[in-house]
Amino acid sequence: MASYEDEDHTQDYLFKIVLIGDSAVGKSNLLARFARDEFYSNSKSTIGVEFQTQKMDIDGKEVKAQIWDTAGQERFRAVTSAYYRGAVGALVVYDISRRQTFDSIGRWLNELHTHSDMNVVTILVGNKTDLQDAREVGTDEGKALAEAHSLFFMETSALDSSNVKAAFETVVKEIYTILSRKVM
Ligand code: GDP
Ligand code: MG
């Protein structure tokens, strides 16, 4: 869904990016932290928000990321194909303190590739690094899985903000780079 909006002078890009991963890994809070610099200690953040459009400056160009949140659909294993449609980027999230959420990553990648373009720019995100004492998934394991699937990789904390901006920016920058190569 990359599109030109202003034919006169500036190129205005709009990228659809989806958040996926098991329930309660912190998807809604990653988005809340990135878009509004907010954090919710309960799951209130999940309710209602369908997507959030965030302006970003990439190489002096204004880029808009339209970031979609599952809004709790994943609880019922019912993320619709409409959710994925037109996505050019994805953050596939697990919780470093719950191995089960890491074990689900393969299933989420399958679902992503079933419903969207194979070339969707994807980052594997291990969230909740602030919970070091409860860690069940090593950084090296995350890194290895990402390498095996040719994904970007980052560990984040929506709670203490670490790497949140960087994770979203990594995806948007890569999409922008690929697109500008195609246009030129
Ligand atoms: P979602 O179901 O994937 O959207 O997950 P939520 O964003 O609703 O978060 C689920 C729970 O995990 C909530 O209680 C959040 O407060 C908590 N949470 C989210 N991100 C973090 C984080 O980085 N660190 C910690 N400690 N808790 C988090
Ligand atoms: Mg949510």
Automatic annotation (TrEMBL):
* Compartments reported by the entry: Endomembrane system
Cellular component terms (Gene Ontology): endomembrane system
Question: Where is it chiefly localized?
Answer: membrane
GO: which molecular function terms?
A: GTP binding; GTPase activity
For this UniProt record, the keywords arranged alphabetically read as follows: GTP-binding, Lipoprotein, Membrane, Nucleotide-binding, Prenylation
Q: Which domain of life is it from?
A: Eukaryota
This protein is called Uncharacterized protein
Q: Which family does it belong to?
A: Belongs to the small GTPase superfamily. Rab family.
Question: How would you describe this protein's topology in the membrane?
Answer: Lipid-anchor
